[in-house]
Amino acid sequence: METKRRLYWFGMTLVLLVAAALRLAALPSLPIGLHYDEAANNILTREIAFGGYRPVFIGAYTGKEVLFFYLGALWFRLVGPEPWVLRLNGAVIGLLAVASVGAAARALWGPGPQGRRVALFAAAGMAVLLPHVILSRYGFRAVSQSLMEALTVALLWRALRTGRPLLTVAAGISLGLSAYTYLAVRLFPIPLALAMLWLLVRAGPARGRYLLQLTVVLLAATAVFAPLGLYFLRHPEAFAVRISQVAAPTAQEVLEGFWNCVRGLGWPGAGDRGVRFNVAPHPVLEPPVALLALAGLVVLVARRRLTPRQKPSESAGSAGTDSRPEARTGQLLSAPDALTSAARVLLLTALPILLLPSALATQDDVPNHMRLVGVYPFLVILPAIALAEIVRRLPARLQTWGTALALALLLGGNGAATADHYFRWARSPALFDANDGDMVLLARTLDELDTEGATVYVASYHYQHPTVAALSRRYGEVKWLTGGATLVLPPEGGAVYLVPVTAQAPFPWPEELTSRWSVEEVRDPFGRPALWVYRLSADAVAALRPKESPAADFAHVVWVHRATPLASACAAGGRCGVLVMWEIRAPYPALQPVVRLLHPQTGEWARVHPFHYPTAQWTVGEVVLDQQVFVAPPTAPPVDNYEVAVSFFNPQTLEILPRVGPNEEFAGLEIRFPFGALRPPESPTAVALPESCRPAPENVPIEGVRLLGWSALPATLRPGERLALTLCWEALRAPLPDRKVRLWLEGSMQVLLYEDAPVYGRLPFPSWKAGMVVEDRLALRIPRRTPPGTYEVRLGVGAAEAVSLGTLEIPPMERTFAAPSLPNPLKVDFGDAVRLLGYEVGEARSGEPLLLVLYWQAQREMEEDYTVFVHLIDLQSGIILAQVDEMPQRGAYPTSLWMTGEVVRDEHTLAVPSLPAGTYALRVGLYLTETGQRLPAGEKDFVLLPLVVR
Predict the structure, then answer these.
(1) Where are any strands of DSSP class E within 573-693?
(2) Which of 76, 136, 66 lies closest to 101, judged by CA?
(3) N or C: at which end does the chain have fewer Cβ atoms within 10 angstroms?
């Protein structure tokens, strides 16, 4: 028996040597690259090792458990803070996991030769398991989950078999520590609890002792988990943030994800399709091992005794030689049948439950071999069961040789396959790309650059890329251009731009820029272009800076100089580019540009608000060249006169930065530049009905076009209001006859709303291509003199039969044309549009609301909707003390509804602050919100109303 134990330990040593070779060989250089997440882990570990950072849970990067980082910090203090040292931490944890899997299998099966065989084969399976080898050679915390799961099971079952108090406490500590490993471990207590419940049911007379031990385990685990539990109570969002990001939205997707995970365990070609954690799409198990795992599962399900009854000779032969405590106390302190049955329950429930972290995360690739890490300690036991059962059935004289042969096949055959897969994968171009290899080259290039007299800008898909932070000593000297669509001209001196292949500009830069810079190309280890270094001299920067006055001044923070298309024309449904040039004039907490593609008649068609050059890096005087890319929908009308609107907003407060005019007046919220025409889609294909249109009740072909649908009609509209109507057309053939679209109201009288070609006459039918779908947005004013009543909205094209689009109610309007007698009469004309007849004002008291009633009279019918401003000002300084800006009657009666000669009573409430008693003034006027343009009132653009505050 002692010989067999020595052979067991010899075999286990061999297993660990193979595991170490697979996990440590060429570790400083392989796997190639340093991914964003792994680099971030290096930075966090440095903070723990050297920066005094002592987290219970790391809230950054969507949340990270900390055990791996504290262990890594120890290695950093011992070896140094190089990125490969964190991989060494993972390799050592992975190696310990192999040993722990062997210990767990041995504890589950108990003493005896069969237990030793299962332990040996399970450890060997873990040693050569490709996904675990890959994870063990990365600096990712997930690898610690398999270690703590296996260690917890080993300690718990051994404690239950022996009754040792220290092992019982250690099992609880290990269970508590497992919560500090990886997100997926949160499901591990479920199969463990099910197994322990089963144990208590089957334990018989030993139930009391088991219950006491499990209570101790639970108390120890709770004590260890308590700091993390308190953290989650105080920060509940930290517990759920990553789950909410990747969780499956439907039960069907969960089932599909679960099935994909099951297939990915052993079906050829069904594994993780991502390159970072797999030789995609290799399954978790090699096919022969997967067949053995299936056989082992059959053994479990068939409810065979996992520990065969010993023959009398075996029992007698071992009685005098086995002096271990479990052998001496086994009859008193354990119930082998109950523990064996609980082990079966653990394995049969752990496998499906621990598949769920990957199966539920259908927002990412399924299966994901990193999220399956909790399955591996239990999965490798299945083929071990089958192999051990095969060896057990051999004649006694051949069992030792059978064990050796099975171990050799696992370590030699499977190990060789794993080594071949791994080392080809770890050096591959695909992994270089997936592991941010271009950023590794960028970091090295940055450290070697001569940048004297120049500002260094780094383009990257991610802002402040941690790969560069982890590798470059000059990380703190650079400014970051997120996404690659931006270049910045410094206020003085030259500029150097490092642009990796993953952050290239979407459109070519203008020749006036490219003709002035020098270019150096850096290639990756496979001879491919990976990085470009562009240099602009100080003279070139000065020549490129704008000389003209800005087109718009946004609150003296940003000047916008121009916005020009990046291509001569762009097609609906395709990428369109605009180069926006803006200049930084003052620091600001947070600001992002908003760029809209719009048409003055049909409205907005596309919008982007990119995070390209964050305000934390701004230097006053920098000029930003920003490529803005948007895609107009394929249904956007291919007409001319499109515009690009540029504005800025604070993403933290959603406040829009206002434009200021030359006299510090409000000048609107955006600046518009001409864009030109959209071309028709390159090749008209089947296009989904736009969301703006409801499907027509049936196909409505009209003169060679089909009316696919139209927008919902409002229930009522007042005379003067606009009917916003979208018509969705499809050309059935080409060419089409030249016909006009006619829209009218049919009721007590016929009221014509529109008669012209589509898109306000800009897109005649003969210019359409067959199959083209057009979203025709119209805003049709209801004539102000339309009689009240119920009307049918009708549409016709040429001589085709008219189509009813629905009904519309026009309510009666109460209008006043006689001027009332006013306590404060005036006669102030604002342009030729509006006259202020007078006003009423309440008693003004410090700190109380003030009611002001204005009486306006329309001098003409207006298409515009003017905003009324009322400013309470200090007469001496002109400072605005309070203000209200709103359309007449608090927005309920805009000026576009007024009829010539109509008198409108308009109330405004002003919040008067705490002021000293005295004489002040109310400044009143009207302006257009879009541009800030005010209506003139004589030589001024406002009128002052005296006010005494008491």
Answers:
(1) 575-584, 592-599, 603-608, 623-631, 642-649, 671-676, 678-679
(2) 136
(3) C
User: How far apart, in whole angstroms, are the C-alpha atoms of residue 610 and residue 592?
Assistant: 7
Looking up tokens 């359309």, which residue turns up? 887
Kindly report the length of the chain. Answer: 950
* Percent over 70 (pLDDT), the chain: 95
Cβ density class 869-886: b for 16+ within 10 Å, e for less = bbbbbeeeeeeeebebee
Q: What is the pTM of this model?
A: 0.86
| pLDDT at residue 320 is higher than 50 | no
Q: Average pLDDT for residues 649-667, to the nearest whole number?
A: 93
Q: Which amino acid is at 817?
A: F
Query: What b/e sequence results for 422-451 when a residue is b if at least 16 CB atoms lie within 10 Å of its CB, and e otherwise?
Result: beebbbbeebbbbbbbbbbbbbebbeebee
> How would you list the strands of the sheet with 880-886, edge to edge?
880-886, 867-873, 918-927, 943-949
Report residue 641 as tokens.
């006169």
Which SS3 state, helix, strand or coil, does residue 636 take? coil
> What is the DSSP code (8-state) at residue 412?
I
Q: What is the pLDDT of residues 688-705, one digit of tens each?
A: 889 999 999 876 778 889
| Alpha carbon 588 to chain centroid, angstroms | 25
Tell me the residue ranges of DSSP E strands in 345-485: 454-460, 479-482
CB 732 within 8 A of CB 749: no
In a 13 Å sphere around the CA of 866, the CA atoms on its Cβ side amount to: 21
- Asked whether the beta carbons of 69 and 58 are under 8 A apart, the reply is yes
SS3 838: strand
CB 486 within 8 A of CB 608: no
What is residue 317's predicted lDDT score, i.e. its pLDDT?
Answer: 34
pLDDT at 874 over 90: yes
Distance CA 264, CA 258 (A): 10
The string of DSSP letters for 751-777 reads EEEEEESTTTTTS-GGGPPTT-EEEEE
Q: Which residues contact 841 (CB under 8 A, 6 or more apart)?
A: 824, 850, 851, 852, 853, 922, 945, 947
Alpha helix (H) residue ranges in 888-932: none
pLDDT tens readout for residues 527-548 = 999 999 999 999 999 999 999 9
Question: Distance between CA atoms of 882 and 922, rounded to whole angstroms?
Answer: 10
**240, 194 contact by CB (below 8 A):** no
* Spatial contact of 870 and 907, defined as CB atoms under 8 Å apart: no
CA distance 805 to 813: 24
* SS3 sequence of 132-184: HHHHHCCCCCCHHHHHHHHHHHHHHHHHHHHCCHHHHHHHHHHHHHHCCCCHH
Residue 331 has pLDDT above 80, yes or no: no
Residue 729 binned pLDDT confidence (cut-offs 50, 70, 90): very high
